[in-house]
């Protein structure tokens, strides 16, 4: 028996509850959300020309003696011996092309060569899908920009390469720096993001974006942290850094302003994680040595929120965004429970005191409990089995309501690769019922990780996966989406009696009287259940059910079968103060009942 009490108002659903957490893991940023198609565009990734090859009879090498500027201290040297010699980039497991599409190419070059460069998108068999030419190369570093439009007969493929070729008949040298290629981006932003992936994020209706990590924020060593000041301004002035936590180079083209513009595009709030003097392999900073890091955080907050009369607010305006961003939550570090030295107590206090002095209204998130200073939220992370989440759905029901509120900043059932299977989706949905029910305590939550490139699945289970061309949503994505987008503003107390394997939460919109009863059935059999709605003046007999269901716990979505499991909405009738409803096996259902 499921009893929904509409007369007693439960907790108000936290308006900030459902967010997203992004960090560059599994090529989530480089080769993922960040739409740049050239891999190692800056030639800074290694001492060898990773992801580049010479075409024709030329030779290529990394040259440190001819830098573009003080940020890009390595360039690619091409020694030309015959017409048609050039360079080619393989992209991130291929460069995607589509017919009748315009790509923006940009490159810096200089050399002894005085001819034009031909820039082309080319198939493996040599078919040219799009081509353009630059002006003649000179002896000085010059940027060449051109638009490449694919032909109507170009295929939709991820197998293209970007080639840049010369026509020199002499022995010449050409140096290249920051060779870039962008497809159309979300909202047509230059230096922007991949359309299909942002659309998938938008459809989750996130309330906030936690960024930039995670381990990516910290780096294995302090030098590899997300050093935000090196991630702003012209892309060719960003040195990039080794993403040591996840094993590849980051150009930092996806920098602080790009994250903030993403929050604007998604209509959500930034949740800014600041580096707090601790790196993953254990290095930590305290005392006077911590002061520059605290100042970096203050400057970063000023970059987001300061007026254009402030130093960093002016810099934000110079970078193209005069309007300040709204900011409420700042997280100090990441998973500082790993810091066995105990230095977080001191580090948190230093950041707390400086930030609260300058911005008393900001709310601070601690990553592990501290005692000398208050914190507004504590960030808890849970990576567990689907069954642990199923049984853990009541974790917060009996929480001491006087302790600090919670941000469940990373959570996910572990099962399925590179994305969760139905079993994990049911675990995730169960867990989420508990977070929603207790969202007077759990003010915010975000699943993790968000993305994986199918060819770089370093972290096993991720919400959304893609290759160079296409992407798909996991069953867990859909489970979360239906719980988030079919939700009232107040919890309606709901009891489930003699219903093992069912997890549930009901929310209600007090203005319309609509109830949203979310029920997760982990069982392999359909559950015909008596439902009682108490305290409602009237109940409309017709409502809706949105259901995600499968036939086996191993069911999942893939690149080749992206919609095996998707939610479906149908009309239901016979709703009343007491009715029976059958929840399908292995399912997540949100029943919408109008009970004004
Ligand atoms: O989400 C993957 C990683 O898990 C995050 O980078 C880190 O915070 C956690 O340990």
From TrEMBL:
<keyword id="KW-1015">Disulfide bond</keyword>
<keyword id="KW-0378">Hydrolase</keyword>
<feature type="domain" description="Alpha-L-arabinofuranosidase C-terminal">
    <location>
        <begin position="409"/>
        <end position="587"/>
    </location>
</feature>
<keyword id="KW-0325">Glycoprotein</keyword>
<dbReference type="GO" id="GO:0046373">
    <property type="term" value="P:L-arabinose metabolic process"/>
</dbReference>
<keyword id="KW-0732">Signal</keyword>
<protein>
    <recommendedName>
        <fullName>non-reducing end alpha-L-arabinofuranosidase</fullName>
        <ecNumber>3.2.1.55</ecNumber>
    </recommendedName>
</protein>
<comment type="similarity">
    <text>Belongs to the glycosyl hydrolase 51 family.</text>
</comment>
<dbReference type="GO" id="GO:0046556">
    <property type="term" value="F:alpha-L-arabinofuranosidase activity"/>
</dbReference>
